Amino acid sequence: MENLSVCDENSEDRLNTDIECSTPGAESLDYSRTISEISTYSEQSSSDEPLNLGWPVSKLAARASPLLRKLGMKQHMTKVLGLKSCDGEASNSDIELMRERFSKLLLGEDMSGSGKGVCTAVAISNAITNLYATIFGQCWRLEPLSQEKKAMWRREMDCLLSVCDYIVELCPSLQTLPDGTSLEVMESRPRSDIYINLPALEKLDMMLLEILDSFQSTEFWYVDEGNQSPSPRISSSFRRVIHRNNEKWWLPIPCVPDYGLNEKSRKDLQKKRECASQIHKAAMAINASILAEMSIPDSYLASLPKSGRMSIGDSIYRYMSTTDKFSPEYILDCLDITSEHEALELADRVEAAVYVWRRKANMNNPKSSWDIVKDLMADGDKNVTLASRAESLLLCLKQRYPGLSQTTLDSSKIQYNRDVGQAILESYSRVLESLAFSIVSWINDVLYIDGSVKKQ
Q1: Residue 258: what pLDDT?
Q2: Which of 115, 144, 273, 426 reaches 20 to 30 Å from 308, CA-CA?
Q3: Measured between alpha carbons, how far is 239 from 253 in angstroms, rounded to an integer?
Q4: What is d(CA 24, CA 251) in angstroms, rounded to the nearest whole number?
């Protein structure tokens, strides 16, 4: 790693003195620990020289290169905190606040300092999840996000995602010297999964915020269900559907004029719903691909039942093993799933059966008897078929219930994951998937109210 000159900001006489130090590389990320609390650091300064890693950081994301000099970091904090002082320096209280947040991140959610905190990957994943809950946890309406929350979201996410600037891989490349000689050198490049998925997620993030910003002035409005005071804004449509969401009584009720929305507004809502739905599918696909790449924890494999039949039950197993033309939609139609809890429980059992049958299909028997070999081949083909059918059933279940929570396997993968890059991509795609799903649900609520009013 290239040695850098570190400048001491306390004395002008020492600014020209170079102090050589080794900057941490991609493999040294494991030493740092983060915390899930909300941090206050923000965008990086573009005035400092970027670190030359052999590839343009701007292609990966619209973020400046990380700042590594003490003087540059102090200038960076001044811009982050938005301070305006006569001497151009951040106040001591704000610097102490920044230092406190960094310290908590390094402790890995363990304030005792005993080294029992969570690993870096889990801490960053928790930080992104908690940041989303802080910014969007109380958003239940189709309205623009406040400037303060929007700035906080971009500021915090920019710092959390900046970790990806250091996650690189070395690839051989040819370099031509001035004398015309070609030399093969190792060049730093962003890791392939981050290079592909992170710009896509940032684009989806921007599109979702643009959708919310587009609801500046609308024909519909919201009223809290507990608001019984007479008001000209409470139309008859509100009174007719006031008990529509008995399970979530705290959510505000959308209201439309007595004659309903005009055709232009309705088409605009449908167009935005389709856009948010496509974003939801894209984020879900990225999240599923990242989770598929994560290794399965040994604790989950140890907890699997002895047979797939025991996991899914006799009725489902009988249909899956005896039917020539398997239809997962038919199974779900026959099952009486009345709540998300039941759907999640079924997903856990089906997913466990998938890995039980996969493990049995990959088992090797040391005996060489031809009859035993034929039996193993028959059982292996049967296990492969059952595992494939269980996978299609699980996929159909997740498509039918898109708001389904994480399965036990997914939670275990996130909990025991040690790859920082995968943790960032998984948590970022998961929160964007949740936001897109919420926007689609909110638009559906408005269209439902509009449809019920026009039917009257």
Answers
A1: 85
A2: 426
A3: 10
A4: 48
Question: Could you tell me how far CA 383 lies from the centroid of its own chain?
Answer: 33
Cα separation values, 291 from 53, 86, 132, 205, Å: 29, 50, 20, 20
Nearest to 408 by CA among 301, 327, 315, 253: 301
Residue 50 to residue 61: CA distance in whole angstroms = 14
Task: Show the CA angle centred on residue 109, arms to residues 103 and 112, nearest 5°.
Answer: 75
Q: Specify the CATH superfamily of domain 295-416.
A: PRONE domain, subdomain 2 (1.20.58.1310)
What are the residue ranges of helices labelled H in 214-262? 236-240
What are the φ and ψ backbone dihedral angles of 143, each rounded to 5 degrees?
-155, 155
pLDDT tens digits, residue range 241-257? 444 445 567 788 899 98
**What's the pLDDT tens digit per position in 105-131?**
677 778 787 878 888 899 889 989 999
Question: How is 62-93 classified by DSSP, letter by letter?
Answer: S-PPPP-SHHHHHHHHHHHHT---TTS---HH
Instruction: Give the dihedral of Cα atoms 403, 407, 412, 414; nearest 10 deg.
Output: -20
User: Could you tell me the residue ranges of all domains in the chain?
Assistant: 23-191, 295-416
> How many residues belong to the chain?
456
Coil/strand/helix, residue 292: helix
Location of structure tokens 């587009």: 214
The label of the residue with tokens 């309205």 reads 143
Distance CA 436, CA 425 (A): 16
